[in-house]
Specification:
This protein has 308 residues and is α+β, with helices and mostly antiparallel strands. 34% of the residues lie in helices and 11% in strands. The radius of gyration is 20 Å and the shape is globular. The model has no long low-confidence stretch (mean pLDDT 93). One of its GO terms (cellular component) is cytoplasm.
Length: 308
């Protein structure tokens, strides 16, 4: 009865902290994912994201990240914004970056989660993650029944779509695992058909080196000329494959004050193009957009402008 009782406690805390869904997986080697990840890297789909080649074993085995780990708790935190500012903007920003950097917002919640769990259960050892270590997040979320990995390689949830952050607790507490769900993509290829850079060459496989999110955030060199006329106004990240996904009809507006936009939503085309470093620092002070730096955002805007 103890794992059952602890599982109920974990799910109760998740709900109290505002997580939309909570699923549990047994901490073990992700055997099915190993050959997929190996093949993806072999094809060079990671582009210049060299860090994805590191810690191969840790990505697949949570006990190498947290010795003695027994359970992986996966959590979904909704960020779907209303209104969608990209509809009226000349330069678009991915919805996840509308507000304050999610790393800080969710990491604080995860620390609170561990504290509450220790208060209710006793000594629990482990680590918390939100896109901050070599954790195969989508695989764990799918394994614990929070959704399935769609043809655009993102986790899809029947009740929420895909506009959410995934976070984990890898802990030494034995819990009851949740069963995985099935794949509900069916014959739909909306995401593949809509991608302007052909970054989804086959179902469930994304060529990261062609993805607009990669080109505008991760790539530090010049954007290759072959992508001229293909950016569709995306200056930071891209939501195209999510916007066209039928499951996102079920996306619901978030209730997180920290994720409301930070003052760029009324920018005119001229405001974007003439933005100074001072304005960039002020407007994107606590935003994920800061990651691309002023020079990166200017590079993206100039590339789009010259393509018009």
């Amino acid at each position: 009865m103890i794992p059952e009782k602890h599982t109920a406690t974990v799910k109760k805390i998740a709900s109290e902290l505002g997580f939309s869904f909570c699923g549990i997986g047994k901490a073990e080697f992700l055997e099915e994912e190993a050959p997929k990840l190996e093949e993806w890297l072999k094809r060079g789909y990671q582009g210049k994201m060299g860090y994805l080649e590191n810690h191969f074993d840790k990505r697949l085995d949570p006990t190498k990240l947290v010795p003695g780990a027994k359970s992986v708790v996966s959590l979904l935190y909704n960020y779907y914004p209303e209104p969608d500012h990209n509809k009226d903007s000349s330069y678009k920003i991915a919805k996840y970056a509308y507000g304050k950097d999610y790393h800080f917002v969710i990491k604080d919640k995860l620390k609170e989660f561990m504290q509450s769990l220790q208060e209710e259960v006793g000594a629990v050892e482990g680590r918390v993650f939100v896109d901050s270590a070599p954790v195969h997040e989508r695989a764990w979320a799918a394994k614990s029944g929070l959704g399935w990995v769609g043809k655009n390689s993102l986790l899809l949830n029947r009740n929420l779509g895909s506009f959410f952050f995934i976070a984990e607790l890898i802990i030494d507490l034995e819990l009851e695992p949740d069963p995985p769900t099935k794949d509900y993509c069916g014959t739909c290829t909306a995401c593949m058909d809509a991608c302007p850079t052909d970054a989804i060459p086959e179902p469930y496989v994304v060529d990261g080196s062609r993805c607009i999110s990669y080109l505008t955030i991760e790539l530090k060199d010049e954007i290759p000329a072959e992508f001229k006329d293909k950016m569709e106004g995306w200056a930071f990240g891209c939501d195209i494959c999510q916007d066209v996904c039928p499951w996102n009809r079920f996306a619901k507006p978030h209730h997180e004050p920290a994720f409301t936009s930070q003052g760029w939503e009324d920018f005119s085309k001229q405001d974007w193009e003439e933005m100074t470093e001072e304005v960039f620092r002020r407007v994107f002070k606590k935003s994920p957009v800061k990651r691309t730096k002023y020079t990166g955002l200017k590079r993206n805007i100039d590339f789009i402008r010259k393509s018009d």
